[in-house]
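Practice problem 4.
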């Protein structure tokens, strides 16, 4: 692909295109008006776009199935050896940049797939917000996993296994609940078994991404493009709330079971820094979707409105749970009061009977 891309690029102006295709894209609405733009795309430009799309997907695969485990392993070795060499630090920085770049390409791919009808132009401020968002999120996540695995080496396998199984099975569960037919139009040459293998590998990559950060491209097996085109704020909110709670729990377990090996580290300060770092990643994510997203004018609701609605739902759930508990307590108290009233009435009746018997005996 690289050789063909360079060959097409250098031969683009020398050979005249035999035919061109016309593509139609709509501009992002401005003042409620959206203009449709026609563009001529030559054969060479179409091939270059195909290669660029393939390179973007390859960078995502390489980042989360290659660089992410490599960064985790190198940081784990540094923790055990209590030493960070120059060579290892260089490799860790390169691995982190590779993961951040892969996550950034995943964001851009998701935007272009969701808004394929529009002419999407990403500004430098958006790239900066995505870079900071992914850097804080991935770095803190890797550090939390390494710290937890350094003191509870067996339990870290259970944490990784539950994460992978949960995210691998989640798209299949949604596909089963939707009762959609099995996707057959992924590739004409693939059989049903080959299509199943491709979908399993896709969900495996999806689980690998969500293991370290939020996947901007949400897998939806019932969709022809296999990518969800709706902006699901509730799913994103639940993911980050659960992930923050998981990171806090893993750090708490590390703080409780840490050994004398960590005497040279200020443990409370480290826990606080990691939690603040993850919250900083969430902050830059909110800034991106609120101000820097190239298609923010197409959102049915803004980030602040979505967060307020999510918090309202959580508030109503908590209030309903409290009211249920209070109703149960009131029912228990009322039944207890009824029993006491019955007991007191029985005591009064027995007392009256004894008085009546004494009066009749005296008479």
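Answer key:
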């Amino acid at each position: 692909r690289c050789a063909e891309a360079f060959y097409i690029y250098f031969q683009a102006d020398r050979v005249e295109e035999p035919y061109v295709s016309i593509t139609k894209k709509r501009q992002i609405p401005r003042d409620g008006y959206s203009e449709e733009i026609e563009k001529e795309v030559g054969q060479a430009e179409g091939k270059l776009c195909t290669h660029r799309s393939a390179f973007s997907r390859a960078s995502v695969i390489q980042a989360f199935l290659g660089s992410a485990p490599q960064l985790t392993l190198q940081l784990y070795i540094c923790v055990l050896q209590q030493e960070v060499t120059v060579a290892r630090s260089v490799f860790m920085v390169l691995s982190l940049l590779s993961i951040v770049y892969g996550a950034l390409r995943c964001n851009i791919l998701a935007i272009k797939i969701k808004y394929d009808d529009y002419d999407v132009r990403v500004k430098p401020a958006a790239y900066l917000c995505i870079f900071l968002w992914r850097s804080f999120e991935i770095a803190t996540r890797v550090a939390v996993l390494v710290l937890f695995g350094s003191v509870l080496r067996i339990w870290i396998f259970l944490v990784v296994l539950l994460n992978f199984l949960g995210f691998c099975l989640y798209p299949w569960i949604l596909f089963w609940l939707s009762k959609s037919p099995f996707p057959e139009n992924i590739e004409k040459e693939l059989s049903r078994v080959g299509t199943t293998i491709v979908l399993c590998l896709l969900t495996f990559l999806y689980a690998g991404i969500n293991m370290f950060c939020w996947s901007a491209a949400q897998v939806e097996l019932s969709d022809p493009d296999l990518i969800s085109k709706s902006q699901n704020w509730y799913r994103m909110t639940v993911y980050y709330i659960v992930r923050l709670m998981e990171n806090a729990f893993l750090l708490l377990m590390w703080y409780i079971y840490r050994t004398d090996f960590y005497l040279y580290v200020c443990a409370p300060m480290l826990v606080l820094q990691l939690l603040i770092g993850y919250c900083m990643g969430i902050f830059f994510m909110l800034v991106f979707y609120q101000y820097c997203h190239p298609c923010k004018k197409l959102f049915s609701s803004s980030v602040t409105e979505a967060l307020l609605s999510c918090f309202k739902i959580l508030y109503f759930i908590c209030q309903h749970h409290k009211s249920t508990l209070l109703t149960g307590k009131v029912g228990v108290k009322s039944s207890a009061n009824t029993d006491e009233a019955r007991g007191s009435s029985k005591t009064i009746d027995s007392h009256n009977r004894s008085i009546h018997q004494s009066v009749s005996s005296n008479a």
